[in-house]
Amino acid sequence: MTAPRRPLAVRVYGALVRRLPADLGPAHGAAAEDTFLDLYRETRACRGRFGALTLWLRSVAMLLACVLDGGSGGRRRTGAAPSRIAAHLARDARYACRALLAAPGFALTAILIVGIGIGATTTIFSVVDTVVLRPLPYPDAGRLIYFDNGEHGFPSFLAWRELDAFDAMAAARDRRVDLLEQGPPQRLNAAPVSAGFFPMFGAAPAVGRLLDEEDIRRGRAVTVLSDGVWRRLWGADPGIVGRTIVLDGAPVEVVGVVAPAFAPPQIQSGAEVDFWLPLLEPPGLVEDHTRYVLSVVGRLRPGVAIEAAQAEVDAQRTEFARLHPRQYGTRDGGVDRVPLFTLHEAMVGEIAPTLGLLLGAVGLMLLIACANVASLLLARGMSRSRELALRKALGASGRRLAALVLTESALLAVAGGVLGVALTYGGVAAFRALNPGGIPRIDRLAVDVRVLGFALALSLATGLVFGLLPAVQARYARITDTLKMGASSVTASRSGRRMRHALVVAELALAIVLLSGAGLLFRSFVGMVNVDPEFTTTDLHVVPLSLTTGYERPEGRDLTDPAASSPRVLFAANLLDALDDRPGIDAAAAGWTVPFRFVGRSRCCWRTPIGGDPALANADDPFVSIVHPVTRGYFDALGVPMQAGREFTIADEASRASVAVLNAPAALGLFGSVDIIGRTIALGEQALTVVGVVEGVHHWGLDQRIEEGVYVPYATFGGDIGDLHVLVRSGLSPAAVAAAAREVIGALDPALPIGPIETIEDRISRSVARPAFLATLFGTFAGIALLLAGAGLYGSMLYAVGQRRREMGIRIALGADAGRVMRLVLRGGLAMTAIGVVLGLVAARATTHLLAALIWGVEPTDPLTFVGVAGVLGLTALLACLVPAWHAARTDPLETLRT
Amino acid sequence: MTHTLPGMAAEDLIPLNPRDYLILFSLAGGERHGYGIVKDVEHDSDGRVRIDPANLYRSIKRMIATGLVEDGGDRTTSDAGDERRRYYRITALGVEVVSLEAARLAALTAAARERDLLPGRDGSR
To answer: b/e string for A835-848 if b means 16 or more Cβ within 10 A?
Structure first.
């Protein structure tokens, strides 16, 4: 008989029913499957897919209950319920619910503590999961390899494309383009990409098409829009395809829009690309070994190890270094290697340790929460010990009692878990809002199934952790001891007390560890923001401009020829004159870069060897400095005093004078003195006369040292530089300054794109956003930990005092004064605190070195931080003990003795 | 465990567990296959009891061993899309046991009513 194929659910059920030892036998097993099929058909027809799923789950659960029941149903007495365990569980759960409802204060406290712990841990886990654990959203992501060592030239890219280890290779550049349509002139991000780019990252078009090999080979004037810019500027109009827009003054045809699911590889193209362009391979550039503009990702051929690929790249590099030692060799005659990393490692390598640390910190907090709830449960166990002993006396086995107590803990944990998940949604939203930038893929952060699974596992684990002690206690409690103690027992059992004390000590010690971490991060942050940038930051505004389209210098240039004036230099001079004339503007100047334009360890722009005093020169180790082209009045606008000489003047600019201003470190490095007015420095072929020496400023961030700087006139050296940052010193409001700047610039060139106008102080506070973020987060965790530990100590003391009321009463009746009783109680609490602090400090000393990379200006073993942390905890502990001690001292002896 | 021995008295087999009782009660109305029993039980218990297949066949296997139920052979049935299904029928011993159990339940019910633990037939207490 050929029966139609049965639904999967039925076949799975049938397999289970026949395989599992449910004691049905083959004939009945087959009949059971038949009957399930009949039921399934009916349910599917009447109650749909969901009803069928419910039926399936319920049937499988009952089947499992049969199996658990021992598979020996045939020999059981006829009246036995097949799912005894399930029934027990249900009964325990009902009982636990009733017990918790009877003590709502206890239950709510416990749920709240667990909820906060789980919520925080799950939030951080979501971040770690999104950023670190999940594979990159690209096909064969595991085989994608990033070519490190910065950016690379076309010759390298073309050579790597031929390597056997890789079956695909993609390069991208990072560019800004000006768009003059769709609103005010804007400067947007573009990424010219090579032919392999879109296929390698699995990008698909939302409308139109992506760039193809023909576009790139022929260098067609086409572009693909990002989903973001398409929505923002063109209102997601599908009619954009085929239209021509003008980018950087050149018409390009829009051929498509990339689908929003595509997350560009941040490390290669930047995360916020607006326009994708074909990467041109102009003949000049293809052979140019001195221009490094490409970021390269390759895909390993299946089965090829990264080490093999590295060997091929090394061999290629060695060959290049032989041909072009100046470009690919190191100073000591070696080869400037290109290390390969997996794309994943390259993208998350920097942030992963930080996130791991955060996960560790919340894990600690969760442990404290567990210890707290465990000690709550223990105290509750004490007060219930008579009830449990009575149950035991009436025949309940130790195992049943333990199961009962464990069920109660599990219930609390699950309720806490539910609260934790709710808090996670809030936490994730907060994390996204707070994100100081620099965390890759953070925009994809969301609460998902993995995270919820993690929360569930976490809450079950926590339930087990904090429920185990009370369960063990319930199991081994001795009936006679407990019942003998009677209603007015003098002291709690010794073992119970010791357990509670150990938990409190553990909480205090863990709190010390967290507080130490937070303290170090906070000290580092405070130290950083207290650094004097060495210029006047108030009332200083920055206007970023890009003088690109229409500002190219005519061909046949001579840098020092006053007649060959660059349109950029003219514009800058006119702009500064116009700004000087505006009322309310105290000073205006401009430069290629300004302080805090770029912060961090990388150095932008123009870094080159400088020649100074021949007597001090060292051919093997030439003096290298950043060269800053700046206009007249630059140091006046910044508020940096001249140490000697003068800064650039209009006269210098008009005559294209070959002059320079050095900052003090550069002067000392080149001449060993700051008294060098009139000496000359060599910048390439040019000799420049030093006309001034200024104090150094923190140009690259508060956490970076003051570096050597050589300042040269923009009028002489700025003619080919597109970027210009205008400094405006004004007491007007930022909005007024921005409006004035826009008006002045608009009058000179209405089509000139203006970047975001900000105050220097905004930029500075942005530069410390990450330390601030970390300090805040650690501080929050440590604060919660401190609160929990304090509450744990307080609860434990209050409980102990309650237990010892009679003893206190007797002491007072025998003549102990209040101070003596208080001291007695305080001594107990502070002894626990002292042990906790010592253990915590030892643990902190052993772990804070993990923070070394994140802190600045503080040692990981900073004694001041440790002392301060111990002090804070000690004070908290004192407060937590004082109230119970005060209670004890006020014990009325008559009242306690009477009861 | 005496009930696995054949030829035992009906009195030894009560009280029946409620599921077995409902299954026997259904079979007392004639031969049924598994699905038919499940639907009967559901109907007879006002929808309160819905037996899952595993427990149904465990009960049936047990009651076949005890001699309360016997195998009625396979035949096709329209409510399974004309597929073949195994039928079961109640034995004489089964009828005797289900009657005894019903009588026991009736006595319990009457006792409960006497003590005002149950509403009367007219719904009054």
So the answer is: bbbebbbebbeebb
Which is nearest to A135 in space by CA: A419, A348, A388?
A: A348
Q: How far apart are CA A312 and CA A186, in angstroms?
A: 43
Beta bridge pairs of residue B74: B86
Per the model's pLDDT, the better-predicted residue between A702 and B82 turns out to be A702
Distance CA A781, CA A838 (A): 21
CA of B70: how far to CAs of A48, B60, B67, in Å? Answer: 35, 9, 7
Structure tokens at A333: 């005659």
Burial class of residue B124 (count of CB atoms within 10 Å of its CB; 0-12, 13-18, 19+)? exposed
Whether residue A9 lies within 8 A of chain B, CB to CB, comes out as no
User: Distance between CA atoms of A587 and A577, rounded to whole angstroms?
Assistant: 10
Q: In this structure, which amino acid lies at residue A635? A: F
Distances (CA, A) of A14 to A31, A70, A495, A883: 9, 20, 52, 65
Q: Among A100-109, A140-149, A497-506, name the one with the lowest average pLDDT.
A: A100-109
- Does the pLDDT at position A608 exceed 60? yes
- DSSP letter (8 states) at residue A329: B
Please tell me the distance from the alpha carbon of residue B107 to that of residue B97, in angstroms, as a whole number.
15
Q: What is the per-residue pLDDT across A295-327, written as a single tens digit (0 to 9) for each?
A: 999 999 998 999 999 999 999 999 998 888 777
- Token pair for A439: 């965390």
A33, A38, A82 ranked by CB distance to B58: nearest: A82
Please judge whether B57 and A28 are an interchain contact, meaning their C-beta atoms are less than 8 angstroms apart: yes
pLDDT of residue A640: 92
- Rounded CA separation A630/A605 (Å): 13
Structural tokens at position A656: 């294209």
Name A719's Cβ contacts closer than 8 Å, sequence gap at least 6. Answer: A553, A557, A559, A565, A566, A568, A569
What are A218-252's pLDDT values in tens digits?
888 999 999 989 998 999 998 999 999 988 878 99
Dihedral, CA of residue A658, residue A659, residue A665 and residue A668, to nearest 10: 90
Nearest to A34 among B34, B58, B60 (CB): B34
Q: What is the DSSP letter of A80?
A: -
Alpha helix positions (H), A602-649: 634-638
Alpha carbon A878 to chain centroid distance?
Answer: 36
Instruction: State the complex-level ipTM.
Output: 0.85
Q: Which two tokens stand for residue B57?
A: 């066949």
Within A173-273, where are the H helices? 197-200, 213-218, 227-234, 266-269
* Residue of A500, A531, A569, A539 lying closest to A637 (CA atoms): A539
**Token couple for A124:** 């951080």
Where do the H-state alpha helices sit in A148-275?
A: 154-161, 197-200, 213-218, 227-234, 266-269
- Please report the pLDDT score of residue A558 as a whole number: 54
In which element (H, E) is residue A626 found? strand A624-630
A734-750 as b/e: b if 16+ CB within 10 A? eeebbebbeebbeeebe
A876 token code pair: 């908290």
Question: Residue A569: which of A586, A585, A591 has the closest Cα?
Answer: A591
Is the separation of the CB atoms in B2 and B8 below 8 Å?
yes
**Segment among A88-102, A263-277, A400-414 with least mean pLDDT:** A88-102
Min Cα distance A503 → chain B (Å) is 47
At A132, the amino acid letter reads V
Instruction: Please provide residue A363's backbone torsions phi and psi, each rounded to the nearest 5 degrees.
Output: -60, -45
Q: Give me A443's structure tokens.
A: 């925009």
Name residues whose C-beta falls within 8 Å of residue A713's C-beta, 6 or more positions apart in sequence: A629, A630, A631, A632, A648, A652, A653, A656, A657, A659
Question: Does B85 reach chain A within 8 Å, measured CB to CB?
Answer: yes
User: Is B33 near chain A, with CB under 8 Å?
Assistant: yes
**pLDDT value at residue A82:** 47
Count helices and strands in chain B by DSSP H and E runs? 4, 3
B61 reaches A (C-beta below 8 A): yes
